[in-house]
Amino acid sequence: MKKIAIISDIHGNMPALQAVLQDIEHRKIETVYCLGDLIGKGPSGDIVTDLIQERCEKVVRGNWDEFISMTTDVEPLKWHQEKLGSDRLKYLSSLPITIEFVMSGKYIRLFHASPRSIYERIQSWDDQEVRSSLFTNSELCINENEADVVGYGDIHNAYIQHFQGKTLFNVGSVGNPLEITQASYVILEGSYDVSTPSPLSIQFVRVPYDIELSIQHAIEAEMPLLKEYISELRTDIPGSK
């Protein structure tokens, strides 16, 4: 049996990422996948990006990871661009869209927001037809298979649902959770690269971290949109994702 830790939406929050990686290490999980949005919102996108490259076996592109490399006149985005530097921006914009593999007889597809676009936002309360569409493939997918299990990030709201034998889950957010003020990630456990049906588990983990330290980092960095960022970390009330 193989365990894979799946993290997403770190958003430049280094204390949250460190707390999650420490929990993953404590559980002796060696394989970590990241579903995008390494940067943005928080002040430490540069060192978060470096640590993700070091610790994660596979990483996909989020909406922030893509548009942060585009030419812009928006001052908060320019602030993040300058902090990241050209090499990191190039890395972020070149990340793939999906991670796909077989585990315990299930075809599993992981991505940031949807198999069609990193900008398509689908919530747990959307119509069933909309949510079910996440199992289909697109030209952005690696394989033409329709997925049996889908995991994604983007919405900062962890959940799991089942649709006629298929399973949909959202891993939540490490650095900017918007339903509980604790970092969120998922542990997927099963028989990797095995097409024969066997036990498969999806475990949700919430990790407390030092929110006030994250806020202090943002203050010291003189980060733009500071008031909004502090409010989201302390209250889990969403602003703009």
UniProtKB/TrEMBL annotation:
Occurrences of domain Calcineurin-like phosphoesterase (ranges): 3-189
A Pfam family that this protein carries is Metallophos_2
CDD domains in the cross-refs? MPP_superfamily
Question: GO molecular function terms here?
Answer: phosphatase activity
Write out the GO cellular component annotations.
cytoplasm
SUPFAM superfamilies named among the record's database cross-references: Metallo-dependent phosphatases (SSF56300)
Q: Which family does it belong to?
A: Belongs to the metallophosphoesterase superfamily. YfcE family.
What is the recorded name of this protein?
Serine/threonine protein phosphatase
Species whose genome carries this gene: Paenibacillus pini JCM 16418
